[in-house]
Amino acid sequence: MGPHPAVAAIRLAVRRVLHDILNDHTPTSGGPGRQAVGERPERTAERSPSPLVLVACSGGADSMALASALAFEAPRLGVRAGGVTIDHGLQPGSDLRADEVALRLRGLGLDPVESVAVTVGREGGPEAAARDARYAALDAVSERHGAAAILLGHTRDDQAETVLLGLARGSGIRSLSGMAAVSGAGGRYRRPFLQLDRQTARKACMVQSLPVWDDPHNADPAYTRSRLRHEGLPALEKALGKGVVEALARTAQLSRDDADALDTWARQAEASVRDAAGLLECAKLYALPPAVRRRVLRRAAIEAGAPAGALFARHIEEVDRLITGWRGQGAINLPGKVVAQRQGGRLVIRQG
């Protein structure tokens, strides 16, 4: 008899991601970073050092299920598997809990395993600050060990919540695209569970008798995502029926495909709207579709030194009015001391 369906599902998701990592990691006759057709991963792994894949684990059901699946699948594919847990220091006894999670990861056979303490600032709110501190620590651990990838346990439910949060911000189609299956520098972060629901991960832990820690912050109404999880989504399902989470996750993928296509279009269009001196020509910008034009403007602002994280839709809309609603208005101040102004039919974006 095979494994429980929930266990089989999480292992299959992890196996697929490990195959992708091996293909990216191992040079073969099929070209750099690609596995030759019909060639087994075990053979390709012999041609270069086995890649190290880490799992980021909080001790919750999602990440514990992910850690167990990685521990099972990695040796079968010639991949080294390790783990890391982050102590945010936001709750009493968090250091002891982090040590306990690290012990559980070692018990699964993962090596190396690290427990890293971070200091969470205040910029952007508690959730954003904790996330920034966590990813900075994960980046550092990955670089220290030369890891090929870090697996994250975000599920389809997390994706649905992310889409709704993006919708509430009104940040455009990129926010609606949610979390990418592959992200970070060089595709460092991989999310195998984006097509699996939270209950599948929890069930997999239960049938494998894996201890699970439930973060009290996930039920604290002081946090936006917690309110959305326990109040917002249930209210939507009550009003609209079951299937809301699946529909939102599907929306994320469709939005990501659209946003990627528009980004590509904007990159290609940018060269055609610049003059010989490299300045943006307002008439040619005006002829572009708004979604493409605003992406060109955003790229230009970032290249001039505006921090991407501080550059909001309202900033780009103000710059866009220099193109579409020109009435002789003055310069537009952007984050990072960047200034945008119209001069003789050209749009000049530079450090002020």
Explain the overall architecture.
It contains 13 helices and 10 strands. With 352 residues, the chain is α/β, with parallel strands linked by helices. The protein has 2 domains: 244 residues, Rossmann fold, CATH 3.40.50; 78 residues, 2-Layer Sandwich (Uridine Diphospho-n-acetylenolpyruvylglucosamine Reductase, domain 3), CATH 3.30.465. Helix 1 packs across helix 8 and helix 6 packs across helix 10. One of its GO terms (molecular function) is tRNA(Ile)-lysidine synthase activity. It is an enzyme of class 6 (ligase).
Give a brief rundown of this model:
The chain has helices at 5-25, 41-45, 61-73, 94-107, 126-145, 156-169, 173-176, 198-207, 224-240, 244-270, 282-286, 290-303, 313-324, and strands at 52-56, 80-87, 113-117, 149-151, 182-183, 189-190, 280-281, 332-334, 338-343, 346-351. It has 352 residues and is an alpha/beta fold.
